[in-house]
Amino acid sequence: MRVRSRGWDGFTYFAIVGAGLMAWSPPVGVHGNKIFVSPTGSNWWSGSGPESALRTIQRAADLARPGDHIVIMPGTYFERIHVRRGGAPDNPVVFEALEPGSVHISGSLPESIPADWAWSDEGDGIYSTTTRWPVYSLSDEGEALFRVPGGDVDSLRKIVRRPRAWGAFCYDRQKLYMFLRGRQVPEGRRLATHAPAPEPREWGEFKSANVWLEADHVVFSGLQFEMGIGAGVLVWAGADVTVRECAFHGATFGIKCGAGTKPSRNVVVENCLYENYPQYFWHRDWLSWDECYAAYSSSSLVTAVDDGTRVVNNLVVHAGDGLRITTNDVDIREGLAASSNWFAFCTDDAIELDGHAKRIHVDDNVVIDCHESFSASPVLTGPVTIENNLILNSPTGINGAQLKLMHQNAVPDPADVLPISNLDFRHNFAYGNWLCWTDRGPIKSVRVCDNVFCISHLVDPLWPRGVDDRENIVMVVENRTATATAMMDRLRAAAVGKAQLSEHFARFRRRLERRPGPSWLDWRSSPATRAVDEFTRTSSL
Questions:
Q1: Model-level pTM?
Q2: Are 93 and 218 in contact (CB under 8 A)?
């Protein structure tokens, strides 16, 4: 229906518009205002209180001034947010949930769109539908479906014919093909996929995010990020950023830093959750390591390369590399640190370190059933210190090594390969399948001392040439069905008689009583965290 002009004169028109703008403007320009946002609000309102809340987080971000708190009321916000206005030192712009964990920032389509999809039976439990744009991420009732590398229906058909196949999909010639566990018929109301997004770049990484940040001095608190595809928060041009008490579901990275136009210094990530459930089960039950790695090696809580990064007390579960930290240059003063995090069910490294990796400290973390515990891929400058970590990798799980020493790829002349250098691995307790994996390149100043290793498989020699191996306890584990309690008992018994190691072990017992991740998170409420909850409850920790 067309609306006809009433023939108002110019003065009346501008008077009405001006009055509307005055009513619509928020209380800006005063230090420390609160700007409220609600799914039932309106961007024509002031945002000064819950009863006059704005409709979108984007509108609040556009209006914020240093010191403002953007208070987001419970609900789902189907928007991608571009933050260009930040705060000032000790006076940040804060985006916070009114009730922590109740705010969902989603890049997905409203559920009514998948509900309208018409499906055709393609055989082998595969169903197809036509979509308006390519699909790169898809979930069924919160369970991510495996995106088939190569993206053709023949490859999809091949892998879903295997026993114990999980859900998978591909997008081939303008059609979406999908397989659900148990060969279920798709129900659109259970599905979630994304709004249009850029195609993946080299290595399959996506230039998209729930929040694209180009501002300094910003805090995100108590939020859940969903269907970001590339990242939950992309720190493109921002520094002094804090992300706390947040959860990231299914994006390639929870927080991606250092990829934009300036260094992302002083990023702090604390008490957060990252999960890409059921990635671990894809590898354990169904797919080879290579197949998982090809599509999901980068599913991580954080990737960061700049000075001052701190990653503390987070929970990472069903990931590829749980955490990827390094430094691009040697002009590092404060360094990077990862402390008191839990990494469970990672199909690659719990923590990957590469590049110069100058002044990196990794301590007091817990690793549970990951493919590799810690990886130097490689460390060229250092120093890197990995100390006081507890590693509990079931002998029946996917664990390949406690320490991986891997050199640079694609170096034409082996003589040009730089050594892995300046790494200390000390006072760690590790239970698992293998001790060390290496490609046998040069190693310099790598010290492994005062650790306890209970390992199922040993090689001769234990460590590659160049590793300084001192005062380590290495025991062969014969029990192939060890429980978490048995792992802890064996590690504790091995430490008896060495006072320093016994002291560190007692510290871990206390540490394990404090659960990482968001304080509002009920571990038993989500399949992604339920297995970790069961692990801790049945292990007498």
A1: 0.91
A2: yes
